[in-house]
Amino acid sequence: MKRLVYLFLLLTLVVSSVKSEGIVLTGTFQGDNLFVKNPFAPSGVGFCVYEVTVNGLTSTDEINSSAFEVDLSVYGFTTGQPLTVEIKYKEGCQPMVLNPEVLNARATFEVTRLEVADDKVQWDAVKEAGSLPFVVEQFRWNKWIEVGTINGKGVVGKSTYETKVRFHSGENKFRIKQVDYTGKAKYSDDVTYVSSKSEVTYTPSRVDDVLNFSAETLYEIYDEYGGIIFKGYGQSVKVSGLKKGKYYLNLDNRLATFTKK
User: Fold this and answer.
1) Would you give the end-to-end CA distance of the chain in angstroms?
2) Domain 202-260 belongs in CATH node 3.30.390
């Protein structure tokens, strides 16, 4: 009996003296499982990984092989639910997670309502698969430009959002965008709003110091090669530092030019 106790204590001491490390992956549940390449332990006995936990729960997957799968479907997670996966391994070796990107949020949203009210764009979204920024874009100067950003809630059910925007004169168009880890953008349909604002004009056409606008407006100034010089919002812009020549001006909802004297 004493001999058994001695062997047990010795084994405990040996196990507790083995140093270990870990890989921690954070993300959201997207319906896919993780695959891990698992080398042999440096001692030549057994494999590198000795434990896997998912949100603090020890995985029951078979990890004593050169490659194994972490089955995330058995936990009953909902799409977009936050996950932390920890892969613990022995010192002197390191496993490789072959597809860590499966925990990244994806742009899967659907917009069920998109409208303009007062000075705001409002929308309802469903089927979000993790929190990603919603980008509000406005069509100005023959292109879509970013005019607002708000973080998504990342839930499957309905979420409501709104953000303030600046209208230009005439017809305004807005849409919602998300970009996920793949780099591909997902867009909503666009919504149209007709503003009663007066068209913004500018003076002078040949300027020495300050370019003035008839009302506050978003603006962009480009050189003759298409390089952007200034962009902003206001009722004037100081251009005295520019070289002499022709420049392109985007303001309100139109394109124009001016000459720096």
Assistant:
1) 102
2) no
